[in-house]
Amino acid sequence: MRVDVTTSLGIHLARVALNDESLSYILTRERKYFNGPATATALKPVLGMPLDPKLLVHMLFDQQPEGEGWTCQRDKKDYLQSCTSDKGIEVTWSERSLERRTVGVKTAKAQLQLELTGFQSKVEVSPETFVLAAPKGFRPLGSAKPSQNDTPAESSAQ
Predict the structure, then answer these.
(1) Phi, psi of 58 (to 5 degrees)
(2) Terminal CA-to-CA distance of the chain, rounded, Å?
(3) How much is the pLDDT for 149?
């Protein structure tokens, strides 16, 4: 999965790539990058809260979360409306219209609302699609040493 994160005004905040068990992201405003294991804690700098990357994929693709303890409700058109885990995580899907939808996540400590637009479920995939190179001058999270990589980050999603 590859996602660009922008504000409602179109300001680019991050580019995220998730491939099996590895996660990469570039935080454009902070000029930092991350390459490592796909864990809930690893996504906190991007989303502002820890979130299991597998749950994020299920949310983005309108899929019922996997695993024990999830109870889901569907609307009249059989779209997922909400899912609640026995661990207190609530996911909601709402305001569906053409290429837009809203997905929310609520936990005891935090909540997140994603306004999704421009979704493409099928794209041309190359070996580089899910790999993000650290742009020159960007620092790894938790380090003061800048990247020496000369490959710049792309300025828009493909």
Answers:
(1) -60, -40
(2) 12
(3) 43
Determine the Cα–Cα distance for residues 142 and 2; give it in Å rounded to an integer: 23
Cβ proximity of 114 and 108 under 8 Å = no
| SS3 category, 12 | strand
CA–CA distance from 14 to each of 54, 63, 94, 148 (Å)?
18, 24, 24, 20
- The structure tokens listed for 120 are 């493409």
E strands, the chain, in order: 2-6, 12-19, 22-27, 32-37, 70-74, 80-85, 90-97, 100-106, 111-116, 139-140
C-alpha triplet 86, 19, 90: angle, nearest 5°: 20
pLDDT in tens, 10-44: 888 899 998 878 899 999 999 999 999 999 899 89
DSSP structural state of residue 43: G
